[in-house]
Amino acid sequence: MRFENRAPWSAGLLRTSIGNGTMAGSVLMRVLYAIEGQTLRPLDEPLPCPAEGEETIFGIFEPDTPYDKRGVDLIVVGHVYPPSPPAIATTATVRVQAPRGQPWTRSVAVFGDRRWRRQGRQWTVTGPEPFARMEISLARAFGGSAEREDMRIEYPLNPNGVGFYISEEQAEGQPLPNFEELDQRIATWNDAPDPAGLGFCPYELGMRARDSVTAREGEPPSFDLVKLLSSAFPRMVAPPIGFGQWIQLEHFTPNGALAFPVPDPGMVVRMKIGSKTAERPLKVEQIGIAPDLGRAFVTYRYPFRYQLRSGEERSCLLVPAAESLPASA
Prior knowledge:
By secondary structure, the protein is mainly beta. The chain has helices spanning 168-171, 207-211, 225-229; strands spanning 2-5, 10-19, 22-36, 39-42, 55-56, 59-60, 72-76, 79-80, 89-96, 104-111, 116-119, 122-125, 134-135, 142-143, 145-148, 151-154, 162-163, 179-181, 213-214, 222-223, 237-238, 246-253, 256-261, 267-273, 276-281, 283-290, 295-307, 314-320. It has a domain at 2-77 and 200-323.
């Protein structure tokens, strides 16, 4: 299939065979934006698309695939700022306003540095130390590793985190994570919650693999490829987001809330297979936000399938919506 990108941003075509002569494909486009007040302004600076594991200001973009994702990956990097610094704790929130009904909301608890303290048989936590900002990092979420005899044991969901201990002696005087899930607050030294992540979720952490498998008694396990392929932490995957829907961030900048509508890039995909031609819109697949840097990105996708037929002409063009074919074409 011939692909032509007429957009001013990075884009590419990904395809794979899914058997019986059927191909699954996707057109991907990734746009870098400057955050200017409540507006995203597109920039000419390229982002990897299709990505192959490149390091960027948003983290590492793992390799893109041809497969469709039913949700939207939300990625936030930078710092959390309490409303009245210095403070000992706050709650950071990402919110997607819905056209109708309740908004989609994701919140995490953020604390200043704390440590475990044992008083007789009772375990307590020291009061959080005041902070003016807290770096968003998996190193500050639950996890880590611990020694047992001559063996190192890693917390499989985040081996580079903090707060994982396998004995009371190891835990005494040691730190707790700064980021916690609101419904998985740590109460005892041997609790094992999910790491509260806001950025990209590396595949090797295992959270995506765990959440993609469903086991029911007496039935073989079912496997959800879409959840496995999502690049965000499972709790940072929002339902489908349309152009114009507002994204709101609370306590990710020193100035309070940050909000903007999701931009329409003004591009369509023109598919020609044999004698048939059709134009289809892109949809939103990822939204990444770096408030400290005043930058955001949006990944757009058009997924499709087609049957291979020998000698058939096939082309795929990414064109401005202003150049759309007449309705009768």
